[in-house]
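Hey, resending since the last one bounced:
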Amino acid sequence: MGERKGQNLYYPPDYDPKVGGLNKFMGTHALRERARKLHMGILIIRFEMPYNIWCDGCKNHIGMGVRYNAEKTKIGMYYSTPVYQFRMKCHLCDNHFEIKTDPANLDYVIVSGARRQENRWDPTENGQIVPDTKETQKRLFDDAMFKLEHKTGDEDTSKLAKPRLGLLVGRNEMVWKDDYEANCALRRKFRKRRKELEESAVNDGLILAKSSLNINLLPETEEDKNMAALLALRPSRTIEEKQSAVRSKIINSPALPSSKGLLTSFGGLKKEESLSKAAPLTRNSLGITIKRSKRNENSDCSDTKSIENEDLVSKDKLDNSTESETTKNENKVSLVCDYSSSGEDGD
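The structure tokens again:
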């Protein structure tokens, strides 16, 4: 591979093999921009965040696995192992933080610019296998009594864990002994779940298209069903009923407005107002006049008095009439009544 790459390099006409490699002849480094601070003992590398941290500049969370271009510097030695320090810039602000290696504890330590999110615990509390430290290994090698105690403790731990391990092994054999059947069961389960998701996606799409929305719908629950059953979002009348009511109002209302303003917009005449404002009916308003004969003046004295009283009442009610009403009364029909004792000539 290296030979192939060497053949693909461009060698200028003035290249002198005695100088050395092509990089020496061109005066460049093989790492190019990564080695621009190499004279200061700094090499640019790609550093991956070993754990979750909080940036001190912007107070934002930076997750484990985020990669940065870091300046790698050797700052010391731990026995024969070098200790390196990495300086990088936060991608969310202008703050720089520095992290160095800790070979003694097989860990990384934040020097400045950030603080670690504490997610550490004692591995012995949850049954994890913890490697022995160097001091323990040294005592196991030098002290026979400590080695015997350590071995006895390990045997006690194995006796306590043996029933649990047996249950796990038995369950594993029961579930995964027949690989084909277990695979079929998983595929059936995944296929059923996929159909449910597809149906819910179709139903959600119909609801969103009907409501003209573009949001993500959450899965339906029993509480949502109960709340929806208590709500009544339907109108009290349908569109057809509203249209028929409007048509009936239009049909029952008069086409022309009244001159006296007794018509409403939809209801027609107001009976109470028309009755209260209408003039009382009298003989003069109907055009009826009564003439008496001279023969029976004495006999009909009482009748004439009552008639005169009625005429006086009608006159009091019609004192506000205009001259136009008097002109109309001239053209009225006169009824001549002759009240006689025999009743033969009365008409």
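The two ends are 146 Å apart (CA to CA).

Sorry for the duplicate.
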